[in-house]
UniProtKB/TrEMBL annotation:
Listed transmembrane segments: none
InterPro entries per record: LysR_HTH_N, LysR_subst-bd, WH-like_DNA-bd_sf, WH_DNA-bd_sf
Secretion signal span: none
Name of the protein in its database record: LysR family transcriptional regulator
Keyword Transmembrane helix among record annotations: no
Keyword Transport carried by entry: no
Native source organism of the sequence: Lysinibacillus capsici
Family membership noted in the UniProt record: Belongs to the LysR transcriptional regulatory family.
Gene3D superfamilies linked to this entry: 3.40.190.290, Winged helix-like DNA-binding domain superfamily/Winged helix DNA-binding domain (1.10.10.10)
Keywords of this entry: DNA-binding, Transcription, Transcription regulation
Record-annotated HTH lysR-type domain positions: 1-58
């Protein structure tokens, strides 16, 4: 495959314009058009089609664009890692994680790792599950941690680490505090929910669908676990929270559990890596060893 032509196509797809791509790359528009036509001929696929006065990607074009993005993201990742080795002589470990592992599990594992391997530079990015997987696929992370039951990506390996209990919580003086109620009854309460792309929000909606009841009424939407639990502690709403995050608030009598008839929730935590990646860095393998030792 002609990688130069692929790079030009990727820029056209990114900007949704041949002329803008040509201007950005400082080459003529006809030159870009010729390269893309040659690429289509080489692949035997139509990648672009006319749409009004502009162009749009075909289904095959969309597929190739996503794959090409990952290829050029890998190129950037290699360049960055080489530069890191040249500048410091040490490896860098990029980690992406959803909020629960990032706040309540990774600090311990990272502290143990740094005590043994102090020279390795580590960057941890916290985001929702959708963004975490995107970062991993596009080589913005070397490994990732998520809490998610299903909807696994075909290009990702999921290594099960552990299950976490999840509880419904309300303010400590709430009339449902400590009570056992039906799921339908609890869903009548205003909920503190997470942002779109959050696996907890997806799980809660799926739970309601399985039990054939309307999803919860959203009273407040916040982007983080701690912010959400603090809102509950301040006296508003209910939420589904990991026990590892809520237990200290319960001990301090700031929030209380609500028990649901015949429903106990456990959610899995996975360590995620890219498929078909046969070799990992020494830092990656050392960190994985630390995690496995910790959870045994």
């Amino acid at each position: 495959m002609n990688l130069h032509a692929l790079r030009l196509f990727t820029k056209v797809a990114e900007l949704n314009s041949v002329s803008k791509a040509a201007q950005t790359l400082m080459i003529s528009q006809p030159a870009v058009t010729i390269q893309i036509r040659n690429l289509e001929k080489e692949l035997g696929l139509t990648l672009l089609e006319a749409k009004g006065r502009g162009i749009s990607l075909t289904q095959n074009g969309t597929f190739l664009y996503k794959q090409a993005q990952r290829l050029f993201d890998l190129e950037t990742d290699i360049e960055n890692k080489v530069e890191q080795l040249k500048n410091t002589g040490n490896e860098e470990l990029q980690i992406a994680s959803t909020h629960v592992p990032s706040h309540f599990l990774l600090p311990k594992w990272l502290a143990q790792f740094k005590q043994v391997y102090p020279a390795t530079h580590i960057h941890l990015k916290t985001a929702n599950s959708q963004q975490v997987i995107e970062d991993l696929l596009h080589y913005k992370a070397d490994l990732a941690f998520i809490v998610k039951e299903d909807g696994h990506h075909a290009d990702i390996n999921y290594q099960f680490l552990m299950n976490l209990d999840y509880w419904f919580i309300v303010p400590y003086n709430h009339h449902l505090a400590g009570q056992t109620v039906s799921l339908a009854e609890l869903m009548q309460q205003p909920f503190v929910t997470r942002e779109d792309g959050s696996s907890t929000k997806e799980y809660l909606n799926a739970l309601c669908k399985v039990h054939k009841i309307p999803p919860p009424k959203v009273g407040l939407q916040l982007d983080g676990i701690n912010e959400s639990i603090h809102a509950i502690a301040a006296g508003f709403g209910t939420m589904l929270a990991p026990s590892i995050a809520a237990s200290s608030f319960i001990l301090q009598q700031q929030v209380a559990r609500v028990f649901i008839k015949d429903i106990d929730i456990q959610r899995p935590i996975y360590l995620c890596t890219r498929k078909n990646e046969l070799h990992h860095s020494t830092s990656f393998n050392n960190f994985l060893h630390i995690i496995n030792e910790s959870i045994m």
